[in-house]
Amino acid sequence: MILIRSILENPVGIALSVIKKIELIDFLYPVENVGMGENGFDILYAPDAPVPLSMPATRIETVDGVVGEYVGGMSLALGQAAYLARHLIGKDAFHRLEFYEEAKRALRKFDKMGAGMLDIALWDWAGKKLETSVANLIGSNRTRIPVYASTYHGDRNGGLSSPEDFADFAKHCQDLGFKGFKMHGWGEGIVEEEIASIRLIRERVGPSMDLMLDPACHLRTWADTVAVGRACDEANFMWYEDPSRDGGISQSAHRLWRDRIATPLLVGEHIRGLEAKADMAVSGGSDFVRVNPDYDMGITGALKVGFMAEALGLDVEVHSCGPAHRHCVAAFRNTNYYELALVGPKCGASPPKVYTNGYSDDIDALDADGQFPVPTGVGLGVEYDWDFIRKNARSTVVFE
Fold first, then answer.
1. How far apart are CA 94 and CA 123, in angstroms?
2. Are 33 and 46 in contact (CB under 8 A)?
3. What is the pairing mode between strands 43-45 and 34-36?
4. How far is CA 46 from CA 32, 49, 154, 346, in A?
5. pLDDT higher for 87 or 10?
6. Residue 1 falls within a domain, yes or no?
7. pLDDT digit string (tens) for 283-317?
8. Is 88 helix (H, G, I), strand (E, B) or coil?
9. Does residue 304 sit within a domain?
10. First-residue to last-residue Cα distance in the chain
11. In the structure, what pLDDT confidence band is assigned to residue 5 with cuts at 50, 70 and 90?
12. Residue 98 gets which letter from DSSP?
């Protein structure tokens, strides 16, 4: 009775977690010596490249003044995020599962990527509201996670321009303490070049380093995919990722490749959400499950995918990097590495340098034991340079 009377006497008390404002900012940021390939899509080494990269930033504020923040996702998904954001005004920020279900239905005709940045900001808000980290909210006790170096695409500009360049850089990463190394090859998909790189990298780093290959769907034929995969077999690669121009979505093609290639396949970066990833796994189209909180409806969606993989006895590997990704890796028993993407010998790391509390996804931030820390501060555990973000904004949308 006392509790009921207190609520009735102070109705504002039951509304402190109601969302009153959402801000979506698309901003530009420079990356040293990084540009686009001739196809206009692959990110690679380009000396003195004048074209900046872009990224969204999200802020969700509730009536009590607590603000959930996240910098991450893809600018192309901002239209979806804006479509969802207007419907979050007036909703309870704690109700992440309700948002997940409603967003999944609202974006059922699309890829749902716009939901991720909002969900992650809601997790950051919850951590700040409850004065604990996202890892603690999930229930993880991991404070450090192993890292592999994930390269830019091969280029023709003197960066990663030959099999020797990739082998040299793999050895450099090994010397820095990385236990794993993943190559993204050339967009032309020249089989002989890919195979030469696979063999030379393994020769250079020896048997102790985990190696992966991600052609990022640039191999042009089924036969090319088999040939490169068999080279991965010979070099004892840990996985072979999204090899073919099917786009990484064909269950039947990947089942056929699994019958002919011994190297485990990692497929699923380009299919969205729990159900599609479960279908790929159950059908036998992939040996690993792939997930990304930016792409797969946030931390909420990523957790669903990770636990699905665990139930099937499969490992889940988190695509790309960032504070939300670190918390997800920390939450999964059935995972192997955090992906430091993208890095190269002559260019800066691809994530924006917008953190003011020491957080970094630079290659030289690796600890001596080949690991990164999981942020322990409240929420995502990072602080952003909002002055830089606003100064470099190319669009801002506010919902109140």
1. 8
2. yes
3. antiparallel
4. 9, 5, 11, 9
5. 87
6. no
7. 999 999 999 999 999 999 999 999 999 999 999 99
8. helix
9. yes
10. 35
11. very low
12. H
Residue 2 lies in a domain: no
Q: Tokens 């074209």 appear where? A: 51
Residue in 241, 233, 291, 284 with CA at minimum distance from that of residue 266: 241
Joined tokens for residue 393? 């904004």
CB neighbour class for 319 (10 Å; exposed up to 12, middle 13-18, buried from 19) = buried
What's the CATH code of the domain at 298?
3.20.20.120
Task: Give the pair of three-digit tokens for residue 335.
Answer: 């995972």
And the tokens for 74? 């893809």
pTM: 0.95
Q: What is the pLDDT of residues 99-143, one digit of tens each?
A: 999 999 999 999 999 999 999 999 999 999 999 999 999 999 999
DSSP 218: -
CB-based contacts of 328, cutoff 8 Å, min separation 6: 291, 293, 299, 302, 303, 306, 318
Total number of domains constituting the chain: 2
DSSP assignment of 143-175 equals -EEEEEEEEEEP-SSSSS-SHHHHHHHHHHHHH
Split at pLDDT 50, 70, 90, the class of 7 is very low
pLDDT band at residue 220, thresholds of 50, 70 and 90?
very high
Other Cβ atoms within 10 Å of 80 Cβ, number? 22
pLDDT at 268: 97
**Do the beta carbons of residue 23 and residue 45 sit within 8 Å?**
no
CATH number at residue 49: 3.30.390.10
Question: How high is the pLDDT of residue 237?
Answer: 99
